[in-house]
Structure formats: structure tokens, C-alpha cells
């Protein structure tokens, strides 16, 4: 995200001004960056529970994976969504922000499938990946689904919820998947 912000405005003084300008594209990217930083800090707490996290993994098409976290409870493709002061509602198949429907669920599911294919190819075995959305700075988050296809959590609860899930991977499996995830060639397909 920092690279995108610099591309949009190379001049550091103008970049700073535009970050504060309501509705500016740079402000939108800066808000997203702040959400990713808050999510990264919360995910870092999982390390003591045997989790590994990678951030801003680049695909060859220029898009990225906000966070990939690998631990005893499995592999999660984490998208940070900062909706400062807004009301977020999650039903069975959609997230709305202040009543407007988003593509967060479909995008997260698509990303998790792509990550699973890449890791499975690199590991030589099926690696399931669960999509997770980290909601940052929302005024309110309401989840109305008994069995959501995407795990949606407030950023403040990420470490507690993930570390409390039932283990599905051994320490050796976690380390093996992490080693594959760290290789740049894993993400070229």
C-alpha cells in the first residue's frame, strides 16, 4: 500500500496533505494501510501460540494478500477492512457497510481459493485455506450467521479467537506450510 500511495503522489508534502483531504484516493489508501498495520500488530500476538504470519504477499498481477497466517488451527487468508465509525453487518453471504452491500465476502473466498491452490502446489498436498476478514475501527459489527463461509472478526479479537480454535495442524505441518509460503516462487501462479 505504501508503494501505491507513493505512486499516486510522489511529493511527500502533497502526500501528507492529501492523506487528510476527505474523499481523496490517497486518504482511502492510507486508511487501508492503517487497517493493515493494526491487523498485523494483532496477528503478531499469535506468535507465542505457534503461529506464523506473512504480510503483503505479492501476486505477479500486482495484487497482494494482506496477511497470511498459519498456525495450529489452520491457514487463514486475512483481509483487513477499515470502516472507521461505520456500521458493519454480516449475514450468510454478504457484508453491508452503513446499509450498502460490499464484495468483501466473494473477494475473500476467491483469494482463499487462490492461496490454497498456490500452497497446495508448493506443498505437494492439499492445503485448505479459510478466508478471514479483520474489521478495523467499525462503530459496530453485527454477525448474523450460524455457519459463516468467511470468518469475520473485529481486529481486537483476532488473536483470542484464532488461538482458541481447535488444532488441525501439527507443528511440523505448520512449519512446512510456512516455509512454502515464504518462497516468492509460490506466488507466481
Helix/strand-derived category reads alpha/beta
Strand content of the residues, in percent?
25-35%
Whole-number count of domains: 1
- Spell the H/E element sequence: HHHEEEEEEHEEEHH
Largest sheet: 5 strands, mixed
Low-confidence stretches are none
* Residue share in helix: 25-40%
Shape: globular
| SS field, number of helical segments | 6
The strands making up the biggest β-sheet line up spatially as 1-2-3-7-9
Overall average residue pLDDT = 87
Number of E strands: 9
State Rg: 17 Å
From the N-terminal CA to the C-terminal CA, the straight-line distance is 21 Å
Per-chain topology:
Blueprint: H1 2-8, H2 12-20, H3 25-44, E1 52-58, E2 64-71, E3 74-82, E4 87-90, E5 95-97, E6 100-101, H4 104-123, E7 129-136, E8 140-143, E9 151-154, H5 158-164, H6 171-182
